[in-house]
Write a structure and sequence with these properties.
- By secondary structure, the chain is of the alpha/beta class.
- It has helices spanning 4-19, 21-35, 37-42, 46-51, 53-70, 74-91, 98-113, 119-147, 228-236, 271-282, 304-312, 357-369; strands spanning 155-167, 170-177, 191-197, 203-209, 219-224, 242-246, 261-266, 289-295, 317-323, 333-335, 350-355, 377-381.
- Strand 8 (289-295), helix 11 and strand 9 (317-323) form a beta-alpha-beta unit.
- It is globular, with a radius of gyration of 22 Å.
- It catalyses: 2 nitric oxide + NADPH + 2 O2 = 2 nitrate + NADP(+) + H(+); 2 nitric oxide + NADH + 2 O2 = 2 nitrate + NAD(+) + H(+).
């Protein structure tokens, strides 16, 4: 908890900082990567650096955390903290890296804002940064301990046991341990990071959701052909090859209660939902489960048959699918963009939403219009931010 004086100073200066965040983050990353080029090649998503989405993520996190100090919302703070901490843990981020970010971030703030950064302003934002760092480091260490690994020691070598084409542009990989032992359990909906060596010497990392059952001795994940890491996996990862992957993390998981569920996804965003559906089927779950999926066409939909088979095994399961192109294939298949106007939504439902940003905004707005509380809508972006 930051001090009253710092909170007052942040409130007074937040509009100026928010207005300059694009310039601050551009300056910050330029400084950071000039001093530590290995962070760009081996840790940060350099594609997102090039298209500008990574700075947007950082800017949004800083601004959101600052605003939460002014208008405390414990549920929202917990949600933001969980998402960032799980992502950091999946990358092996450790406490020693936070002072590096602090050094270059505050140098960027001073350069961009100039004389507006008085000693009092600097002290307030410095306190805010270390409060945020303290919260994240604490949560990340909890995640490492829960996973049974030392902080940052998340990487392991696995062997590709199977490779399956699940759509024209998506491949499913099954990986096993190299010594024949079981891979660690995971929570349905979680993801692993995959690190690949690229031709220029970089070792880039991306996250992919686990689509198998938690009690399988192997892990399974699907990769859509989209970007330099996914292209490498499509072209280079075959049966018997080895991959470097992380311990599973991720917070888009089943809620603790046994209330009704709504699982909404688009494109390859179906993958965390498949992991959840496998778990519901394996455990004989009887709750109401509505599965909503949107795609370009039936021909291009990844895991189409698997999703239908899983939903059919759930006593309370129902499936609705939207396709931008094609013809309707049944009463719950529609042509066009996703539209929830005739989908019944129980007010006690927990909704898990995964897909591109525009899709998620549409689904969240539709659920809000149905008076589903914001705290019952959880989401994960597949696209510029994570994929």
């Amino acid at each position: 908890m930051i001090s009253h004086d710092s909170r007052t100073m942040i409130e007074a200066t937040l509009p100026a900082v928010e207005g300059a965040l694009d310039a601050i983050t551009e300056n910050f990353y330029g400084r950071l990567f000039a001093a530590h080029p290995g962070l760009l090649s081996d840790l940060f998503n350099r594609t997102n650096q090039q298209n500008g989405s990574q700075p947007v993520v950082l800017a949004g996190s800083i601004a959101a955390f600052a605003r939460l100090q002014l208008m405390p919302d414990l549920d929202l703070q917990r949600s933001i903290t969980e998402r960032i901490a799980h992502k950091h843990a999946s990358l092996g981020v450790v406490a020693d890296q936070y002072p590096i970010v602090h050094e270059h971030l505050f140098a960027a703030i001073v350069e961009v804002l100039g004389e507006a950064v008085t000693p009092e302003v600097a002290a307030a934002w410095d306190e805010l940064y270390w409060e945020m760092a303290h919260v994240l480091i604490g949560r990340e260490n909890e995640l490492y301990a829960s996973a049974g690994v030392a902080p940052g020691q998340v990487w392991r070598t696995v062997r590709v046991a199977d490779r399956d084409q699940v759509s024209p542009d998506a491949v499913s990989f099954t990986v096993a341990s190299t010594d024949g032992s079981r891979l660690p359990d995971f929570t349905p909906g979680q993801y692993i990071s995959v690190q690949v060596p690229l031709a220029d010497g970089a070792r880039q990392i991306r996250q992919y959701s686990l689509t198998g059952a938690v009690d399988d001795p192997t892990w399974r994940f699907s990769v859509k052909l989209d970007g330099e890491v996914s292209s490498w996996l499509h072209e280079n990862a075959f049966g018997g090859d080895e991959l470097t992957v992380s311990t599973p993390f991720g917070d888009l998981t089943l809620p603790d209660d046994d209330g009704p569920l709504l699982l909404a996804s688009a494109g390859i965003g179906c993958t965390p939902m498949i992991g959840i559906l496998h778990h519901l089927v394996r455990t004989g779950d009887t709750r109401k489960v509505q599965v909503l999926h949107a795609d370009r066409s039936r021909a291009r939909q990844p895991h189409r048959g698997e999703i239908g088979e899983l939903v059919a095994q759930l006593p309370g399961g129902s499936l609705y699918q939207w396709y931008e192109h094609g013809v309707s294939a049944g009463p719950t298949t529609r042509i066009g963009l996703i539209d929830l106007s005739d989908v019944p939504v129980d007010p006690a439902t927990t909704a898990l939403v995964c897909g591109p940003a525009g899709f998620m905004d549409s689904v969240r707005d539709a659920l809000a219009d149905r008076d589903l509380p914001a705290e019952r809508i959880r989401f994960e972006t597949f696209g510029g931010v994570r994929r």
